[in-house]
Amino acid sequence: MANKQLGFYIDLSGCSGCKACQIACRDKNDTNLGVLWRRVYEIGGGSWHEQGDALVDGTFSYFVSSACSHCTDPACIPVCPTRAITKRAEDGVVIIDQSKCIGCRYCEWACPYGAPQFNAATGTMSKCDFCQDFLAEGKDPACVSACQMRVLHYGDIEDLRAQYGTAGAIFPFPDPSITQPNTTFTPHRDSVPSDDRSAQIMNPEEV
Amino acid sequence: MQKQNSPNSGVSRRSFLKWSAAAGGATAALSAADFAFVPARSSSHAQSAAAAARMVRTCCPAHNCGGRCPINATVKDGVIVRLESDDRTYDELDDPRILACARGKSYRRRLYHPDRLKTPMKRVGERGEGKFEPISWDEAIEMAASEIKRVKETYGNSALFVPYGTGSYQQVNGSHIASRLFNVYGGHLGYYNNYSWAQIQRATPTVYGTQTTGGQRQDWVNAKYIIMWSWNPAEMIDGSNSAWFIKKARQNGAKVVVIDPRKSLSAVALADEWIPIRPGTDAALMSAMAYVMITEEIYDKEFVATHCLGFDETQMPAGLEDEESYKDYILGTRDGTPKTPAWAEAITRIPRAKIVQLAREYATIKPGVLYQGYGMQRRAYGEQPVRGGCVLAAITGNVGIPGGWASGIAFQPTAGPYWTGMPGGSNAVETSIPCFLWSEAVIRGKQMTGKDGVVGADMLDNDIKLMYAVATNCLVNQHSNINRSAEILKDTSKVEFLIVQDQFLTSTGMFADLLLPACMGYETYGLQDGWKYGEEAIFMPKVVEPAFESKSDFRICAEIAEKLGVGDAFTEGRDERGWIDWIIENVYRPGWMPNIPTIDEFEQQNIGVYSVPVTEPAITFADFRADPKANPLPTPSGLIEIFSPELFNMNQPEEIPAVPKYIQEWESPFGPEAESYPLQAVGHHYLHRVHSTHDNVDWLEEAFPQRLFVNPIDARARGIEDGDQVRVYNDRGTIIMPCRLSNKIMPGVVDVPTGGWWTPDENGVDRRGAVNTLTSERWSPLAFGNTQHTIMVQLERHQA
Amino acid sequence: MNTSELALVIFTIAAQMSVGAFLVLGGVHFFATRYAGIEEADKLSDLALLAIGPVLVFGLIVSVLHLGNPFNAWRAITNIGSSWLSREILFGILFAGGGFLFTLMQWRKLGSPGLRKIVALVTAAFGVGLVVSMAMVYYTLPSVPAWNTWTTLASFFTTTLLLGALAISTAFVGGYTYLHARDRAESEKQRGILVITLRWMALVALVMMGLQFIILPLYMGYLATSGPTAEQSAAILIDEHGLLFAIRLLLIFLGAGVFSIFIYTLARSNRNLRLMSTLVYGAFALVLVGEVIGRYLFYASFARIGPL
Ligand SMILES: Nc1nc2c(c(=O)[nH]1)N[C@H]1C(S)=C(S)[C@@H](COP(=O)(O)OP(=O)(O)OC[C@H]3O[C@@H](n4cnc5c(=O)[nH]c(N)nc54)[C@H](O)[C@@H]3O)O[C@H]1N2
Ligand SMILES: Nc1nc2c(c(=O)[nH]1)N[C@H]1C(S)=C(S)[C@@H](COP(=O)(O)OP(=O)(O)OC[C@H]3O[C@@H](n4cnc5c(=O)[nH]c(N)nc54)[C@H](O)[C@@H]3O)O[C@H]1N2
Ligand code: SF4
Ligand code: SF4
Ligand code: SF4
Ligand code: SF4
Ligand code: SF4
Ligand SMILES: [Mo]
């Protein structure tokens, strides 16, 4: 296999927030409640106005499904004191070795995507491993094959970008220059840039 | 539910684990998960040498979820360890993959839930107290049979009732099985219509003469304009893949508009524009749209002239020439109120310019689909927007053309889906009631007449004395006005015996005299097809053994039948698998699936889903459109009845007008009730659940927590912040639950997603959020339908 | 704030206090030797030295509690090449080892004073390395603006020296009381050392407090102008924890400011040793509590860019 970098592509314009991807990941990985390798943010902002009897809706909303972006310049790897996190040479997938992790949670602080998720049951950090066993079997990642709206895809990030563009700086994600994440988006009609101050995560207790 | 604990006292968790270990053969490692008896992944790895996993293609035990989706279940040591989506690779319009939703993917947490009903149980406390004691199956069957026999002998078969229940349509499980049992035993009081679409089902034929007003979804990509009116397929599915078909249509250039008081998942993911509307006022918006179309002369004059009845004074039915035509109503020639956008703005809260825009777009961007969801018809006078929508489709000329849509209930023109092919047997009791009125038939059955929707006889000859409630939570949780239902059910002199057959101790089960544990879909045979749309049949082999002592509904009813001496008539010598075989060969093959695999092929080749690709979607009413004289509609006039002589003749013009009208709801922001209860409440169908089913699934509660949605404007006016516990109440009841401040619900409206398990505290206050604590048992005038989305409430912060 | 972060509060404070104490003690010892000869200098400092070890060891033990999987803790130094956390742990071990060695040598008077000095200097360097890497753990996280600023380094060092100075003061007062009780006459020289030390320590405390009060507004200004996440941190400090924030400032102001001024004046005129001692104990207690609160707030102010 030539050296490539796997990544995700999400067409936010058609993501319904149905969370089939999130649950597929749960079912595949048997993650404990509260540990969400893939999760779905509800983003919103704006406000309503009255105009006589009428109401004018000045709000916006969209959903963003998010997991680890298997970054090109991962923030999680250099900080890890145990070298538990590695990036595979052949496909750029970033994996946490459970047997090495001491659960210091430093990677959790460092990652600007909330990807590493602490598993209280094992005391270690866990996160999306791109369904490496499925990939090895030639299957699509569980979340991808579950997406009801067919808006979640994966592949060589170069191909995805060539096909769908390079949009990345979308709220709630930070400027991609920090870690060079390998997720690319088609924006939603309502989606706003990373630094937009009117946007908010509306479902904090769900993610 | 605190009381949830009592039924399990008989069988402890420990024995559940023991049981599951036994069911899994030699395995001993079935414990790790704290919540259920699913083995932890690590332990199953450890023994991977012992038993290889096997993948079984089956169907999600859909319940009444809005879809029907294939599932690939991985089974290891007799336990399902993973549920994956349809693995077919072809994914084009004609035969797309059918992808499971969050509920289907979470199913292991329901299947292996520690609270499952494990043994038959009989009531030991007062009715409704929730105190039960485990009994043997022998004792249970004996008890059920002798009570059925006693009631039949004392009152007659018409005192027996199988309430509406939508828990299962997989053929050998479901309430239709109990109905078959009663039928072979001499019959029972029947019911007609349902809680889903009573009004749209009744009102659509008043316009078109038929319920088959829809086409096939593949045709949506031909539309240039789509109005999703009260329709939220991204969440309520409405046939697996419906949301995806809309996405395809949009990609193909259609502009999509959602009209809903909530910015639904569909409004976010499928629409170009969301138009928030005050609940219960859709008929006003429709009227104003017609006003714009008529005054700007952009409606399809030619089509109206040739295909419609009662549009204006030129085409009134014979003998009714002087009555108010549709145009009269819209222009206000008789009532003095022209239904202008300004008029509608005050009612609907939609800016008048927006109404004008919407009317112009729908009238001119052709072809267009006006698709009606069922939310706006589950209301007071819900018949009106149904008829109004049909009329808009007609006067814009969108009927009978590719990319168009006649609106109304829109059943498919193909033979399927069948839902159940299991023969129900014939019912010797010919009387039936509207299903929503069962509580009336309990308290005053013998007084019920045609005025109460009784059909098949002038009057009922009995009150309901025995109910066999299978796969339903509709006696309490999903029926209106729970506190009232609870009072009715508590009274053992009314319903003398109540059998509840379910998988969990539901709020309905709390009132049971006898609780019978039904197995789940994965634990018996089944066959399912589409919910409303769908061109496939999905076979369900028995994937794992029934948990504990649970049995299929078919098996349980067969045993009762045996005891009643009608065993052979009931089973006809078949078991569960035998019936699925019979249904494939006698319903599907001679019907619309001549090439459907046999049951052996399904099973041995692990086929799962069999689909019939749709390359040329059917266009309903195309022949009528081409030549209305030669191909008349099944209406009395053969035309599209904008003015319905049938309704006119009912002579209740205030509530059942002959042309669709906006009628102020009986609980409304415009009525005096708004002083005490200023907020409208809807209870939308939430992705957490199928009605009350799945409410106890933790993965889903995490993904879609139960809470009341309220606009920040209404919340802040009451000092309510996001996450606060709120008290929502009206004269019928009170709920205390957490809230979510959301801009996605319009000011003046709150949403308590339907299906939370009624959990009364010591003061009778519901602590979970069962919206039916607040709803009214009043039915709609024409269809005798449930009106559960029409309620007014007040909201305040709850100080603990 | 969860228990694992509480463990970090205790660990960082204890470690910084012991490094600070070690550094300060070195300085004091150096000047005391000149003033009164090495023998006298050793008397008080050896007592103080003995107190440092346990504090550090306590801190290190608590730090392990912060790990989800302590059984693997030994792996924590396997990424010296890039992880400041590894470096922190390495320096922690080195400082502890050096400190142990030095204490042993000093106590048993092993090796020449020159050799001991070298060991002390190396240990001090490890201590500085410990505080530096401790600060770098936070400073190098661009994802946490509240930490990703030079003030993290600056405030860790002011804390180190402030606590070090007051801890040594306290140890000296305690040591002196002990010596005085044993032998009144002999303690006269020690009193001289004590009073001079307290004077200087009070000055150090005042300067550190001054620095802290300069850093703080700069820090708040930085938070206010560095984007929404930094603002979120500022809001946590001011809106959510305003009271604690104020208490902390007050405690530092009282302990390192007001008390230190009194100590300084009393020490200069060498009167009322009793009151001086009480003030020293008080100052240390106030500042310790203040710094613990400060560190708590440091962790509480955590807000990460991107979604949580
Ligand atoms: N996730 C999920 N899906 C389901 C089900 C479920 O329980 N959960 N149940 C299934 C069943 S049995 C059925 S019958 C269907 C029900 O499907 P529907 O009846 O269509 O679903 P509802 O959520 O009740 O209503 C649809 C929309 O109507 C809106 N609405 C309410 N009142 C009004 C109104 O006055 N005007 C307008 N314009 N909109 C209004 C609601 O906000 C909601 O978004 O769903 C099926 N699918
Ligand atoms: N306020 C309000 N109320 C509503 C609605 C609304 O929109 N608002 N919607 C209405 C609609 S559209 C409907 S269809 C009804 C639905 O109401 P119900 O038909 O009562 O649906 P559920 O609440 O899902 O209850 C089904 C029960 O069947 C059980 N079950 C599942 N599978 C099986 C099985 O195989 N065998 C047996 N024996 N039991 C099984 C489940 O555990 C569950 O308790 O609710 C209606 N109620
Ligand atoms: S998203 Fe976070 S965890 Fe994943 S590679 Fe990037 S920095 Fe590391
Ligand atoms: S939690 Fe585990 S993976 Fe993350 S930095 Fe610490 S040791 Fe590395
Ligand atoms: S690729 Fe696999 S592990 Fe990663 S989010 Fe998707 S399902 Fe989860
Ligand atoms: S499954 Fe697809 S549509 Fe649904 S939330 Fe995930 S990405 Fe969005
Ligand atoms: S839509 Fe229905 S059948 Fe499909 S996965 Fe969801 S619950 Fe199951
Ligand atoms: Mo329904």
SSE blueprint and pairings:
The complex is a heterotrimer of chains A (207), B (800) and C (308).
Chain A: E1 6-11, H1 20-29, E2 39-51, E3 54-66, H2 76-79, E4 85-87, E5 94-96, H3 106-110, E6 117-119, E7 124-126, H4 132-137, H5 142-146, E8 152-156, H6 157-164, E9 183-186, E10 200-201
Parallel strand pairs in A: 1-9
Antiparallel strand pairs in A: 1-8, 2-3, 2-10, 4-5, 6-7
Chain B: H1 13-23, H2 41-46, E1 54-59, E2 70-76, E3 79-85, H3 102-105, H4 108-111, E4 121-123, E5 132-134, H5 137-155, E6 160-161, H6 175-184, E7 190-192, H7 198-208, E8 225-229, H8 233-236, H9 242-251, E9 255-259, H10 265-269, E10 273-275, H11 282-295, H12 301-307, E11 308-309, H13 326-331, H14 341-348, H15 352-364, E12 368-372, H16 383-395, E13 432-434, H17 438-444, E14 466-470, H18 482-490, E15 497-502, E16 514-517, E17 526-529, E18 536-540, H19 553-563, H20 567-571, H21 576-588, H22 599-604, E19 609-611, H23 622-626, E20 640-641, H24 645-649, E21 679-682, H25 698-703, E22 708-710, H26 712-716, E23 725-730, E24 733-741, E25 749-751, E26 791-797
Parallel strand pairs in B: 6-14, 7-13, 8-9, 8-12, 9-10, 11-20, 14-15, 15-16, 21-25, 22-24
Antiparallel strand pairs in B: 1-2, 2-3, 4-5, 4-16, 17-18, 18-19, 21-26, 22-25, 23-24, 23-26
Helix pairs in contact in B: 5-19, 6-19, 7-16, 11-14, 11-15, 11-16, 14-15
Chain C: H1 3-65, H2 84-108, H3 113-139, H4 150-182, H5 187-224, H6 227-240, H7 242-269, H8 273-300
Helix pairs in contact in C: 1-2, 1-3, 1-4, 1-5, 1-8, 2-3, 3-4, 4-5, 4-8, 5-6, 5-7, 7-8
The complex binds ligand MGD (2 copies), iron/sulfur cluster (5 copies) and molybdenum atom.
One iron/sulfur cluster (SF4) is lined by residues 68-71, 74-76, 94, 111, 113, 115-116, 127, 179, 181 of chain A.
Describe the protein's architecture and organization.
The complex is a heterotrimer of chains A (207), B (800) and C (308). Chain A is an alpha+beta fold and 207 residues long. Helices cover 18% and strands 27% of the residues of chain A. Chain A has helices at residues 20-29, 76-79, 106-110, 132-137, 142-146, 157-164; strands spanning 6-11, 39-51, 54-66, 85-87, 94-96, 117-119, 124-126, 152-156, 183-186, 200-201. Chain A has a 3-stranded mixed β-sheet. In chain A, a hairpin with a 6-residue loop joins strand 4 and strand 5. The termini of chain A are far apart. In chain B, 27% of the residues lie in helices and 14% in strands. In chain B, the strands form 7 sheets. A 6-stranded mixed β-sheet of chain B has the order 5-4-16-15-14-6. In chain B, strand 9 (255-259), helix 10 (265-269) and strand 10 (273-275) form a beta-alpha-beta unit. Residues 1-50 of chain B have low confidence and may be disordered. The two termini of chain C are 15 Å apart. Chain C has helices at residues 3-65, 84-108, 113-139, 150-182, 187-224, 227-240, 242-269, 273-300. The relative contact order of chain C is 0.13. In chain C, helix 1 packs across helix 2, helix 1 packs antiparallel against helix 3 and helix 1 (3-65) crosses helix 4. Chains in contact: A-B, A-C. At the A-B interface, helix 1, strand 2, strand 3 and helix 5 of A face strand 3, helix 9, helix 10 and helix 25 of B. One iron/sulfur cluster is lined by residues 68-71, 74-76, 94, 111, 113, 115-116, 127, 179, 181 of chain A.
